[in-house]
UniProtKB/TrEMBL annotation:
Disordered as annotated region, ranges: 377-396
Residue ranges annotated for the Topo IA-type catalytic domain, each copy included: 170-592
SMART domains found in the cross-reference section: TOP1Ac, TOP1Bc, TOPRIM
Residue span(s) of domain Toprim: 3-146
Catalytic activity: ATP-independent breakage of single-stranded DNA, followed by passage and rejoining
Keywords, sorted A to Z: DNA-binding, Isomerase, Topoisomerase
Name of protein: DNA topoisomerase
Domain of life: Eukaryota
Keyword Signal: no
Residues spanning the signal sequence: none
Source species of the chain: Popillia japonica (Japanese beetle)
Length: 676
């Protein structure tokens, strides 16, 4: 009997897949690494009886790193990181994942890989294949031995369809991830090490344990600082508006909108006001009624889900995606990482709606669509990855709690909204003339709420009904005055707006965008304010301004978006892996050399914004060299600094005195006085 070894990306997913493929008839045992479970059953593979074994990894099996000696910050010049050798290391050594996979796959005849269906998933496929290459029967890289399952939802229908339509791993997509990992490692580590050592050795109140640079992270920060700069340089200007109120025949007031909108010269604005005040009546010159539509939303993709989670649900994008991943592995929603906004022709819209029609919250809306007919969404884009994000099985408030329920609620309502009717309303525009000055008023009357019944946050607040007027009538002017206002600066970027900018400029992928935003928060480059606005810190502002002084391309999105295009060409098999890698590494190596040479330009900004080490902290202990008191600097990281010797010692983050004593201290025979 042949044996088939199957691997999923997470233990919970392996359990769900095994249950579906075995029709609930599988045995389970814990793997020796304590984190992965092995599920076994008998079935049919390639028209013959087979023994199946399903297990999982826990994300990436391997990670890229420099050879050991190059991880010493003190002994390695960061410029060497652009050319030094790298190696693949176990991503999580305590899991002993390569050994686990090799042991469990021993003697198997076929391999079926159930990793997530994106480029990262393809990369993990080849990590698994490499780990088991010596343990299975046959060549693991052969298309007759190793297969790939493509699926977008954890439902019986999708999983069994994938099992019956197996394909093969895509090496080009896997190589594009290898290229991204190596470039980010070399570029990020070189700049980060240099910056961190240079500035932490000079300033005591940076409040950051790592001053990092990232080819995606830094342009992401750049967007936030660019908006901050626009706010700081904004000069408010006064402007004036002619405000007119008229009465209809029933004595109801109506405030009109001035056709000129506003005027920045008060004297000229007063001339217009005087012209209006010369008349006691306004003439109704035109009344138009027009049916208008507020279009239903496009099917949901990852970027839109992150935008809505931040702006509407108050969830950070990384938190939202973690919840979406969990909902997916539990079978509640389809795969949450997709760029597609168009339902495939074979998508079972009616089936999904029928599953939702008994829900107490939106069941009536689903039933209405079923009875009145589905409206296939217009437009949208199919990029060939995964279908849009949709609910895959019904849920209620008792099954899901907190943010998980709120996200599922939104995804389901959005799906029903995409196949509902458009919102229809009547727009009435009444135009007036007063001594050659034109004014108007617009009213809206709801005709059919359409999709807004299931997505009430997009509904009209109330009908904006205007008082009745008759064309060519003259109506009395109740009031005419000049209103004075000020132009306002733009607000800080919200997470939602930042996600839009990142997508527009090709910074990151739908999977990595939330990671980059989370990184600039964790690095203390921005703080998240009310309304999830991203407010740059002094450190974030100084860094971006410093890059702009030395080399603007280090912070602009153009270089990264151009690189993403090259990585996509690798994934499509249209660009050479080594050529892209060598060319890009050389560009950034030259930029790094120029950056180091001109670091004083950035240092001038740091000097103006932060305190030198000698002026920070308080007396703590004596230096073993000069016997003067060293300063204890309570920032990140905590440090001891001797201004006389100009030497610094980082303290253990947990404040353990024993660990502190065991450190190799450059300040020989220091005397510990206190720990406060």
């Amino acid at each position: 009997m042949k044996s088939v070894f199957m691997v999923a990306e997470k233990p919970s997913l392996a359990s769900s897949l095994a249950s579906i493929l075995s029709n609930g008839k599988n045995s389970s045992r814990r793997g020796f690494n304590g984190s992965c479970t092995i599920h076994e059953w008998r079935g049919t593979f390639k028209n013959e009886q087979a023994q199946f074994k399903m297990t999982s990894v826990c994300g990436h099996v391997m990670s890229l790193d420099f050879l050991g000696k190059y991880n010493n910050w003190d002994r390695v010049d960061p410029i060497e990181l652009f050319t030094c050798p790298t190696e693949k290391k176990e991503a999580t050594p305590k899991l002993r994942m390569p050994q686990f996979l090799s042991q469990e796959s021993k003697g198997c005849d076929y391999v079926v890989l159930w990793l997530d269906c994106d480029k990262e998933g393809e990369n993990i496929c080849f990590e698994v294949m490499n780990a088991i290459s010596r343990s299975i029967n046959g060549n693991v890289y052969s298309n007759t031995v190793t297969y790939r399952a493509k699926f977008s939802a954890i439902t019986e229908k999708d999983i069994k369809h994938a099992f019956n339509n197996l394909v093969h791993p895509n090496e080009n997509e896997a190589r594009s991830v290898d290229a991204r990992q190596e470039l980010d490692l070399r570029i990020g580590c070189a700049f980060t090490r240099f910056q961190t050592k240079f500035f932490q050795g000079k300033y005591g109140d940076l409040d950051a344990s790592l001053i990092s640079y990232g080819p995606c992270q830094t342009p992401t920060l750049g967007f936030c600082v660019q908006r901050h700069d626009s706010i700081q340089t904004f000069k408010s200007e006064p402007y004036w508006v002619v405000q007119v109120t008229v009465k209809n025949k029933d004595g109801i007031d109506a405030v009109l909108d001035w056709e000129r909108v506003r005027c920045f010269d008060k004297e000229i604005a007063n001339l217009f006001l005087q012209r209006v005040k010369e008349c006691s009546q306004a003439k109704v010159v035109n009344i138009t009624n027009k049916e208008k539509y507020k279009g239903r939303p496009l099917p949901l993709n990852t970027v839109e889900l992150m935008r809505v989670a931040s702006s509407g649900l108050g969830m950070g994008p990384q938190h939202a995606m973690q919840i979406a991943e969990k909902l997916y592995t539990q079978g509640y929603i389809s795969y949450p990482r997709t760029e597609t906004t168009k339902y495939p022709e074979n998508f079972d819209i009616l089936g999904v709606l029928k599953e939702q029609q008994n829900n107490p919250d939106w069941g009536k809306d689903a039933a209405d669509v079923l009875s009145q007919g589905v409206n296939i969404p217009k437009g949208g884009r199919d990029v060939g990855d995964h279908p849009p994000i949709t609910p895959m099985k019904p849920a209620n408030r008792n099954e899901l709690d907190g943010d998980a329920w709120r996200l599922y609620d939104y995804i389901t309502r959005h799906f029903i909204g995409t196949v509902s009717r458009d919102c229809k309303y009547l727009s009435t525009t009444t135009t007036f003339i007063i001594n050659q000055e034109n004014f108007s008023i617009v009213g809206k009357t709801l005709i059919d709420p359409g999709y807004t019944t299931v997505m009430p946050w997009q509904a009209f607040g109330k009908n904006e009904i205007i008082p009745g007027f008759v064309q060519n009538d003259f109506v009395p002017i109740a009031d005419a005055k000049l209103g004075e206002y000020q132009t306002n600066p733009p607000d800080y970027l919200t997470e939602s707006e930042l996600i839009t900018l990142m997508e527009k400029h090709g910074i990151g992928t739908d999977a990595s965008i939330p990671v980059h935003i989370n990184n600039i928060c964790q690095r203390n480059y921005v703080t998240v304010g009310g309304g999830r606005k991203l407010i740059p810190t002094t450190l974030g502002i100084v860094l971006v301004h410093g890059y702009q002084k030395i080399d603007q391309e280090l912070v602009l999105p153009t270089m990264r978006s151009a690189l993403e295009e090259q990585l996509n060409l690798i994934a499509l098999g249209k660009a050479n892996f080594n050529a892209v890698l060598q060319h890009t590494v050389e560009i950034f190596r030259l930029k790094f050399q120029y950056f180091v040479k001109n670091i004083d330009a950035m240092d001038q900004l740091f000097e103006a914004s932060f305190s030198p080490l000698s002026a920070s902290g308080k007396a703590f202990s004596r230096c073993g060299k000069c016997r003067r008191y060293m300063k204890h600097i309570m920032a990140k990281p905590a440090r001891l600094h001797c201004s006389q010797c100009d030497e610094t010692l980082n303290l253990p983050q947990n404040g353990n005195i024993k660990l502190f004593k065991e450190l190799k201290c450059p300040l020989d025979d220091f005397e510990l006085l206190c720990w406060c």
